[in-house]
Amino acid sequence: MLGNVVKMLSRPTLCSTQPVLVQSSRNTFVLKRRFPPNLYKKNQKPGKLRGRHFVYDLVEDTTIVKKPNLEVVLTAFVEGVGSRGDVVSLKPNEAYNKLLLPGLAVYKTPENVAKYATEKDEREVEVHSSAYAQRTVNKLESLILAVVMNKDHPWVIEPWHIKTALRKAGYYVPDHAITLPETPITGPDLLKQNKEFYCTVTINNLEKARVRCRLHHWSTEPSDRLPYVFEHWKLDAEPLFGGEGAGKAPDARQDKD
């Protein structure tokens, strides 16, 4: 009997104490009395408050008020934000989690602004032309560009052909920013169908992106068209020129490093 009582007392119960984390919450509510009490004269004892005097209306809840942006000074280049020494204004959570915690920025103070502005002026060459230039390079280099050429008439690929293909893909690039391979690409030649070559796109006269291009032949006559290949961009393609560096732009290998 005594053993059963000991076993029952040793079992965990619903009322057993559990450690509770008590943490204060920074909340502020601005209230206003719906029925303000009557004023009293100087040195007069205040009147007794009634129940209606404890009825309040909510004026402002600071937990739902939009917090102002936080200004920080960048200590390094951040893609899509800015360069070292730039003063940017971001949402508090974004500035704290993505910039201040990783050490990519510091709070905006006159000392920090002067310090990083001086270091920015001492640099001779700007590494990035803009905050979004590197993102554009990454987008272009991840693209497999379909260059569609005529199957029935002779042609030589020129920069405007690449410009047209990029425009179809949603990128607007001027002719002077496109550098073709040193070896001319002529056709029509069905042996070059779906073969791959590289061209170079220069962004803001500074950054260079190597764009993968695949050659496709097209005919205006439906009966002369080549069979359609489903999701051809997912298939492996042979290089149009024999070696890795053959036929590429002069600065393409340097950008690879």
From TrEMBL:
Principal subcellular localization: mitochondrion
Keywords: Mitochondrion, Ribonucleoprotein, Ribosomal protein, Transit peptide
Gene Ontology molecular function, alphabetical: structural constituent of ribosome
UniProt family annotation: Belongs to the bacterial ribosomal protein bL9 family.
Pfam families on file: Ribosomal_L9_N (PF01281)
The protein's name: Large ribosomal subunit protein bL9m
Gene Ontology CC: mitochondrion; ribonucleoprotein complex; ribosome
Gene Ontology biological process terms in this record: translation
Domain Ribosomal protein L9 span(s) in chain numbering: 71-116
InterPro entries: Ribosomal_bL9, Ribosomal_bL9/RNase_H1_N, Ribosomal_bL9_N, Ribosomal_bL9_N_sf
Subcellular location(s) of the protein: Mitochondrion
